[in-house]
Write a structure and sequence with these properties.
It is built from 13 helices and 51 strands. The protein is of the alpha+beta class and 799 residues long. Strands 5-6-7-8-9-10-17-16-12 form a 9-stranded antiparallel sheet, with no helix packed on it. Strand 1 and strand 2 form a beta hairpin. Helix 5 runs parallel beside helix 7, helix 6 packs parallel to helix 7 and helix 9 packs parallel to helix 10. The radius of gyration is 27 Å and the shape is globular. The N and C termini lie far apart (69 Å). The site of alpha-D-glucopyranose has 9 residues, from loops.
Length: 799
Amino acid sequence: MITNTEVEKRGNQFPNNIIDFKHDNEKVYFTTQNGVLLEITILRDSMVRFRYATEFAFEPDFSYAISSEVNTGYNELEVEEKDTSFTIATSKVVIRVAKKNLKITISDLEGNIINQDDNGFHWEENFDYGGNVVKMTKVTQSGESFYGGGDKASHTNLKGKRISNWVTDSYAYGKDQEPLYKSIPFYIGLHNEKAYGIFFDNSFGTYFDFAHERRNLTSFWADGGEMNYYFFYGPKISQVVEAYTDLTGVPELPPMWALGFHQSKWSYYPESKVKEVAKTFRDLKIPCDAIYLDIDYMDGFRCFTWDNQKFPDPKRMIDELEEDGFKTITMIDPGLKIDREYDIYQQAMENDFFCKRADGPHFKGKVWPGECKFPDFTNPKVREWWATLYKEMIADMGVHGVWNDMNEPAIMEVPTKTANLDVRHDYDGHPCSHRKAHNVYGMQMVRATYNGVKKYTFPKRPFVLTRAAYSGTQRYCATWTGDNVATWEHLWIANVQMQRMCMSGYSFVGSDIGGFAEQPNGELFARWIQLGVFHPFCRVHSSGDHGDQEPWSFGEEVTNIVRKFIELRYELLPYLYTAFYKYIENGVPMLQSLVYYDQADTQTHFRTDEFLFGEQILVCPVQEPNSQGRRMYVPKGKWYNYWTDELVEGGVEKWVSAPLDRIPLFIKEGAMIPKYPVQQYVGEKKLTELKIDVYFKEGKEDSVIYEDQLEGFDYKKGRYSLRNFRLLGKPNELIIQQFKDGSFTTTYENFKIQFHGLPFKIKEIEVDNEVVSFESLKFNGNNAIEVSKDMTAIHLIGE
Ligand code: GLC
């Protein structure tokens, strides 16, 4: 039992013996003598929901987290009453519910315990607010590790930690600081090579204790609401993450430019400054797709207005930037300045859209423009209205994307940093206080923003970015990890935060590269860029007060390094885009911690630095100054050093050379990595070829390349190109087969294939079963050929 949770005023209460039981389709209900209800829902054979209530009554069932598109359905379900328990068996797990106290034990079909209640569900009446503090205590299994949990700035393995979820503006946060900007109450447990996951879908403040207070106990609890959690059985971490991601949803594909490099600062103004930054990118030939306007573009920080002094003709500026390949992204905050002359404030007043305190007056809080009122985004009418406000900005002026900030909501000059707890919310027709709505407030704001931006950007794809998030927010937008600091420790934090977010269903994520607060030196900036180009969202952003943070702000050596890595990102865009496709299609995280990659190897359980970018590229950032390289763990299997083509055998820790212009980077053997030519922005060049780097392997390996129009929604109607490749290498030959799917025709005709690590000299080539002379295909020395993109099989035969 967990002890130091809340002020324990009334003591814990526990369920007692089961007096009633009912099985109705996918649901099984239990009632205890002292009024506890347990509803178990079988969503899939390995996905089960547990929901508890006290006093014989459930609250209405409602969640912002769950996707409307979740796949459900199971193969088997058998419910049996035994002497001391009930058992519920599916084709993957057996759940035992103890008759005398409602405790749960979940086993696999071989009888191995996967997850087990210690005290199980218990609760404490909340004297101050009503309702219960709901609690769950589980047994920590021997050797158990814990992962996931959203944006925590802690070791990837959460064992021994306690975390809390209460979305908070955390300027210049530190390592292990709690709570941060997001609430993602989901974790993965791994023991005895088997993984499971738990998603505690409760929007109140939630807490998780991973064997921190007591070595053998894992607990989670919430300040109110229901004990309502989903259990996912693996046994692989990948299956757990995919199931959680399916349950809470995925985004649509972003426009490809959103995966390019983005430059931001608080703030670029006036127009001439924005233009100068944009021009410098083009002059120095550093690729860049988007430029951000922070709060200073507004008139006195009033959302949806422009400062006409700084930006006399925003539409013209945005058009001109677009001609030069730049997309313009503007910031919108939730707080509306209290100002009778401000029409948007007036509209919200007239429509009664602002949040109110318990006794009726509007909630007021100070943000950038001074005193503000806050729309209640948990009211669907407010969301509809908010979406319409984007018309002028997007449809009329041509802004390409929107950045929602301060949406925790962040309030200045109050110790709580946010709204008062008595503030009332609609919560989509389930009225409640801010205690319940706080963690979803930002999510509902950005949901409204997404709807508006999508509507007015159509037929193009929307791009939206948020700071605050609750589970499921990934359906609407990308996110960044808030106000970090330009320190080496924060480079480490950025690395673990991105891995953790990706493992928590939220892949479209990035950090403020270089650090938001304070200023990096050139070395730190270069090392951070080297990491940041491997994050799904890649943006430099910094506060204005600490000097410049553009790629050219640190001298020529750093400028050249930064360019080299941004160019690498642009080359890898088709690989990254394919990773995005796998994420939305199958829930595969775009970054994978080593434990995800190989959970059977216990060496991976406590690794933090190394990760997979997509499924075939291994990255390990340099996180210390003055390094010429670093030690890192190369996971099992064979890997090619990207820089040297040296083939290394994994399963060991290695010293890897990485002077300032390199990051340790390895390609999985057998991989086929697609590359586009370097462009200054997405769409600059018409693609006339697709380069594919093929890394020889003795054995089989599959690779995928996904492409489409890079914009629009035709891909949803089958207008995409999905190339599935199978590589089969033998000592003296190599076969590559292609199976193509989708009706999109790419603009290029040929693949330019570069072979790496071929153990033989090519003697003969067959393309689609016909012998072709090597001379007629080769284009770049002895290991590169150019073939039609429609080929179905290439067969290289060695001398
Ligand atoms: C917040 C944001 C930051 C932004 C600043 C000014 O601190 O996190 O990114 O630059 O507000 O809008």
